Amino acid sequence: MCGIIGYIGNKTLTPLLITGLKRMEYRGYDSAGLSIFQEGAIKTYKKKGRVADLEAITNEVESTSNVGIAHTRWATHGFPNDINAHPHNTANNTISLVHNGIIENYASIKQKLIQEGYQFISDTDTEVLVVLIERFYNNVNDIENAVRLALNEIRGTFGIALISIYEPDKLIAARRGSPLILGIGEDEYLVASDAAAIIEHTKNVVFLNDDEMAILTKDSFITKTISNVQTNNEIHTLEIELEQIEKGGFEHFMLKEIYEQSTTITDAIRGRLLIDEGNVKLGGLRQVQDKLRNAKRIIITACGTSYNAALVGEYLIEQLAHIPVEVEYASEFRYRSPILYEDDVVFVISQSGETADTLAAVQEAKNRGTTVIGIVNVVGSSIARYTDAGIYIHAGPEIGVASTKAFTSQLTVLTLLALYLGRMKNLSIVEGIKIARELSELPKKVEEILQSTDKIEKIAKEYSSSRNYLYLGRGFNYPVALEGALKLKEISYIHAEGYPAAEMKHGPIALIDENMPVVFIAPKDEIYEKILSNVEEVRARKGKVIAIVTKNDNQMNHLADHVIEISETLPILTPILSVIPLQLLAYFTAKELKRDIDKPRNLAKSVTVE
Ligand code: F6R
Known about the structure:
Strand order of the largest sheet: 3-2-4-1-10-9-11-15
Bound molecules: fructose -6-phosphate
Radius of gyration: 25 Å
Oligomer: single chain
Mean pLDDT: 95
Number of helices: 19
CATH class of the largest domain: Alpha Beta
CATH superfamily of the largest domain: Aminohydrolase, N-terminal nucleophile (Ntn) domain
C-alpha cells in the first residue's frame, strides 16, 4: 500500500529510484513520482499511471547530488492524478516528502495552517504534513527537530522519507504503523517500504520500529525515537535472492507463484515434520508451549485470503486437537471489545506481516494481556516482531497481488500446528503418523495438478463472459469456496460468491439459471454424498456445474459439465490441493479477459491503512 524509497550514496540516482519503485509497484500503482536535487534546488517529477509512465518522463533526468526520494501510490485521500501523486513539497520547494499511511487529523491541521496563511494544492493528507514540517522549521531552524515536532502533532500512520534544501546532504525517514526498512550498504544507505527495493544494493538491513526516525547521510546513519532518544537497532541479513522477486520466464508473477507451490509447501514443512513420531517440531512456539497446552480456546484473526486460511485452521484444530476455535476478521476484532480470557491464545495470520487491521488486532489482544502468536510470511515484518511467538510460513516473496502460494503455505503451517496441538492432547501416534506421511506426499500431488492445466484453461475461456460465478463447498472445503470466489473477483472483476454448499437452498439458489457457472469443491470425503445432492439441485435449475473432484470419481463424471481432478488425500488435507485449480481458473479467466493480472484495479498487495 504505497511504496516509498529513499537513497543516499554514489550511484546514479534516477534509474536506481525507478528500479526500486518497480520492485515495489505491487504495493500501489495509480501514480508515481520522485524528487532529486538539480543545481541545489529540489526537482520533483510525478505522473498519474504506472512507474513506467514516470520512467518515460525522467529517463533523461540527471541529478546533481546523491540523495533522492520516490513513491508509488495507492490512493487514500484524493483521486489518482498528477497533483495528488507524491512526493509532496512545500510551496517554495524547500522540503519534499513521500508518505505511506494515513494522517487522521489532517483536516483540522490543514484548517489551522490555512488560517496562518499556508496554501495547499492537492487533496492529500501528506501535503499537510510537509507544510506542517515547514511551519516548525520556520521556528526552530533545524530540519530534524521540525520533523520531530510535526510528527508529534499528527495522529495516524506513516512511513515517510524526506529531503530538504536546508540540509541537502541528509535524508530523514520515520515510521509509525507503516513499514520502513533501512538498507546499510557500503558508502550508501537506502530506506524503503519493502526489502524488494533494497536487496539489489545490500542485504544488511535495520527494521525501523514504530515512532523511530532515521537520519541518513552519505557515510553515517543514526536511529532515534521521535522523542529524541538514540536507539541501537540490530542489523539483520536478508535471506532473499534477486531471482525470487523476478518473473523468471513466467508471463505473470501470479502464475510463477502458483507453479512454485510444490516447492513452497515443501519449504513450509522442511525440518518440522517428525514422520516416525507422528509429530511436529515448531521451534518458534517453544516459549509458549505451556500456554498452548493449557489453552481453553483459540482465536484466529486475519484479513482476506489469510482469513480464509484461518477458517480452514478452525476445522483442523477443532478436529485434531479438540480445542474450540473462533475465527474473526481482524478489522472487526479490533473494534469489538473482544472478551478474552487468561487461557485464550490468539493467532494472527498475515502474508505481509504489515496489514494494518491485523496489526491493530495484535495490539488489541496484547493490551489485554493475551498471548499472541503470528503465522507470517515476511521475515522481520511488524507482525512477526510484535507477536509473542510465531511460525514463519517460508513461502518466499509473494509479488502477485492475488495471494496464492502464501495461502497453501498458511494451510500447510496450520496443519502442522493442528497436528502439534493434537499430539499435545489426545491424538494418537498412529493417527499422527498417518497425517504426517500424507502431508509429506502433498508436494508431489500439487505437481500433478500443475502438469495438466489445459483443461482448466479451456473451462476458463468457455465461461469468461459470465457475469456471476458461484463457488460451493462443505466442511474443510467451504473456506476453499470462499477463496476461489475471492481469487476470481480480484483479478477478473467477475462477481463471485462463495457459500457452504448446503446454504445454497436458503437464498443463492434463486440466482441459478443456464448462465450461472457453479463451481463445486467436491473431493471424496464423508460429506461427498451430500454435495452430490447439491449438484443435482443446481442441474435441475440448468446451472452449469464445474466440479473439483478426487481422481476417478465416476459419479461426478456423469453429473457435472466439467470435472477437474485432484489426487486422493486425507479429507483434512484436501484444501491444499483443491484450491490450486481455483487459482488457475481465476488466472486463465483474467488472462482471457486481458486483465492486469499482477496489478488488478483498486487493489494493493499490502494493506497498511485501515
Ligand atoms: C487476496 C489478498 C488479500 C490479503 C489480505 C491480507 O488475494 O491477497 O485478501 O490476503 O489483504 O493480507 P496479509 O495476509 O498480508 O495480512
